[in-house]
């Protein structure tokens, strides 16, 4: 039977989503469970198995040739393990082997969530048609991935392109990763909000102190909120320009909750990029919002796994 479908899993701290995905990115079946993130390792795996069981109950399941997983990280694709920061019970958890066992020995491909988003944007989103791209998720953290020479570049452990932990301020505040002045330490949603609060910004009557509220205040002209987003934009611009200089990307795609701020983020980011991307071969670098939205994790997991479909998989290619 033709193995023209991929089972995709998107695993995060709040939800475990699954889908059967065809070669054009169509999601023929979807399911999801809440992530029991504060429970034990086997309870979390039980939720993954429940998602897989629902997919496997479909009459479409015999057409599945591989499983793709996009997971919160860190991940280690070479070992097949995951250690998501937001799932404390999973430390070096052998997710690939457990999923392989649960699916009767199907090929399983693991990538980090930033790499999954990159695969999705290159296949169906804003990076489509670009051979060299950086795609980023800017949310509670800052992650990313690379497309080089027209192919997803995951690196040996599946973490290549993790721009959030490039240091852009040598004397900056300590980051959770152990370094100082990382992009994530400045440009993630919680740090944008914390910076605004530290400098005197106060929330409205609803008491919302998230980056969404800071963005709304900046849009309304609040100078402190605006300054916090401008600082985040400079950090992102410095990281993007450094990446472009190193590997010659021509587009940077930004998704995640912070990207929802729109021009509050993108206008100062594009201005700052002109200050950092100064060499002739990076001056034409463009920055654009992501397009795949909430489906990025599932689409990217499917795209990453498509080349590994067993059986007649070699005869089938995913097309845009």
TrEMBL record:
Q: Which SUPFAM superfamilies match?
A: Actin-like ATPase domain
One Pfam family per UniProt:
ROK
Annotated Gene3D superfamilies: 3.30.420.40
Q: InterPro entries from the xrefs?
A: ATPase_NBD, ROK, ROK_cs
Where would one find coiled-coil regions in this protein?
A: none
Per the record, the similarity remark reads: Belongs to the ROK (NagC/XylR) family.
Q: What is this protein called?
A: ROK family protein
Source organism of this protein record = Streptomyces lavendofoliae
């Amino acid at each position: 039977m033709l193995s023209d479908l991929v089972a995709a899993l998107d695993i995060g701290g709040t939800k475990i989503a699954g889908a059967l995905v065809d070669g054009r990115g169509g999601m023929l079946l979807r399911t999801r469970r809440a992530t029991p993130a504060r429970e034990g390792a086997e309870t979390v795996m039980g939720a993954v198995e429940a998602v897989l069981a629902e997919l496997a109950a479909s009459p479409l399941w015999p057409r599945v040739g591989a499983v793709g997983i996009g997971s919160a990280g860190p991940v280690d694709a070479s070992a097949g393990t995951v250690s998501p920061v937001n799932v404390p019970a999973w430390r070096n958890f052998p997710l690939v082997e457990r999923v392989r066992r649960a699916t009767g020995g199907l090929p399983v491909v693991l990538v980090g969530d930033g790499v999954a988003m990159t695969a999705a944007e290159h296949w169906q989103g804003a990076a489509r048609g670009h051979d060299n791209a950086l795609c980023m998720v800017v949310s509670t953290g800052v992650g990313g991935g690379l497309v080089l020479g027209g192919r997803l570049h995951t690196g040996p452990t599946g973490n290549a392109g993790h721009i959030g932990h490039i240091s852009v301020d040598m004397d900056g505040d300590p980051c959770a990763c152990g370094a100082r002045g990382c992009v994530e330490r400045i440009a993630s949603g919680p740090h944008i909000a914390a910076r605004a609060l530290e400098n005197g910004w106060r929330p409205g009557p609803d008491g919302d102190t998230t980056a969404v509220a800071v963005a709304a205040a900046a849009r309304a002209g609040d100078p402190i909120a605006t300054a916090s987003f401008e600082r985040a934009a400079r950090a992102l611009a410095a990281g993007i320009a450094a990446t472009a200089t190193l590997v010659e990307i021509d587009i940077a795609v930004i998704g995640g909750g912070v990207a929802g701020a729109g021009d509050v983020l993108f206008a100062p980011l594009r201005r700052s990029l002109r200050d950092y991307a100064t060499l002739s071969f990076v001056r034409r670098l463009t920055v654009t919002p992501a397009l795949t939205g909430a489906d990025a994790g599932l689409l990217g997991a499917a795209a990453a796994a498509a080349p590994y479909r067993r059986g007649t998989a070699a005869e089938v290619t995913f097309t845009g």
